[in-house]
Design goal:
The complex is a heterodimer of chains A (about 110) and B (about 110). With about 110 residues, chain A is mainly β. Chain A has no helices and 10 strands. The chains are: A mainly beta (about 110), B mainly beta (about 110).
Chain lengths: ~110, ~110
């Protein structure tokens, strides 16, 4: 199985500042079709997970452009600029390259 | 707008079967992919499997001998059955359409 390692596991951010979360894959997530199969999700407290980013760098519908993602074939970064109260929750990276799909351990973002 | 709603017992005894239903409105399950994901106490997320628009299935190998995902297209519902449960299957179970739409989740406790 592909192992996704997230860092840090928790981060505390002052509102209005930026935050970055790293995700490292044990295998290249670049598919034969040239798509990098890395996804980012946010689970707010008491809510279902929400898709933020698909195929490494594409913003999901309705997600503010304060969120961005970039990376290589194995190393990825989610950046949140100007963090707001609604950004609090647990962030997960996940892949859809092959079965079984797997998720990172999650990064808890809280406000200072 | 597509909406998903999980239903099923919140308490299951060890060695018994866990059965959940995902009722879908606003979109036909004969299109797209429909999956089950669970989140364990703590933050760990696990992709369990999916059923496709054609009815084909794919399961996480870690569950393959215990899991079954089926559907009823006339009711626009799909189902999860997990056999021989243990306390380690205690989790919140989510149904989802691909990665874009998730149900609210149902908490299932395995306990005698």
């Amino acid at each position: 199985d592909i192992v996704l390692t997230q860092a840090p596991l928790s981060v505390s951010v002052t509102p209005g500042e930026s935050a970055s979360i790293s995700c490292r894959s044990s295998k290249s997530l670049l598919s034969s079709k040239g798509i990098t199969s890395l996804y980012w999700y946010l689970q707010r407290p008491g809510k279902s997970p929400q898709l933020l980013i698909y195929q490494m760098s594409n913003l999901a519908s309705g997600v503010p452009d304060r969120f961005s993602s970039s990376g290589s074939e194995t190393d990825f970064t989610l950046k949140i600029s100007k963090v707001e109260t609604e950004d609090v929750g647990v962030y997960y990276c996940g892949h859809r390259l092959e079965y079984p799909y797997t998720f990172g351990a999650g990064t808890k973002l809280e406000l200072k | 707008e597509v909406q998903l709603q999980e239903s099923g017992p919140g308490l299951v005894k060890p060695s018994q079967s866990l059965s959940l239903t995902c009722s879908v409105t606003g979109y036909s399950i004969t299109s797209n992919y429909w999956g089950w994901i669970r989140k364990f106490p703590g933050n760990k997320m696990e992709w369990m499997g999916y059923i496709s628009y054609s009815g084909s299935t794919s399961y996480n190998p870690s569950l393959k001998s215990r899991i079954s995902i089926t559907r009823d297209t006339s009711k626009n519902q799909f189902f999860l059955q997990l056999n021989s449960v243990t306390t380690e299957d205690t989790a919140t179970y989510y149904c989802a359409r691909s990665d874009t739409h998730w149900g609210q989740g149902v908490m299932v406790t395995v306990s005698s």
